[in-house]
Amino acid sequence: MTLARIRTGETVVVISGRDKGKTGKVLRVWAEDNKVLVEKINVLKKHAKPTQTTEGGILEREAPIHISNVMPIDPETGKGTRIKTRIESDKSKTRVAAKSGAALDEPKRDRAAKE
Q: Domain span at residue 19?
């Protein structure tokens, strides 16, 4: 079992590899494989033959990269940061930036409170 601290929809910065320094939005997370798919990062060219339903040609698509090669962006500084978990008074967990202490997401609420 692994712990994926990166979540879908989050903006991340690539810290190593061919696309180092680029930022993008996380499209998908594979926690069991420790991989993430980031928009417009690690773009590969795939040569496809035409079929009855699709055109052929050279297609560009993103490939997954390892989760250790990306960092979430700190909302206050705009730079990459590590993540810490803060436990609130009502025992809910909140992810916070390690450098500035800014919350990366709002704490989860009970479903009963919404209704």
A: 1-49+57-73
Are both 17 and 64 inside the same structural domain? yes
pTM: 0.82
- The answer to whether residues 83 and 97 touch, using CB atoms and an 8 Å cutoff, is yes
What is the DSSP secondary-structure string of 66-108?
EGGGEEEBPTTTSSB--EEEEE-TTS-EEEEETTT--BSSPPP
The span from the CA of 87 to the CA of 82, in Å, is 17
- For residue 6 the two structure tokens come to 């990166």
pLDDT in tens, 76-102: 999 999 999 888 888 888 899 998 999
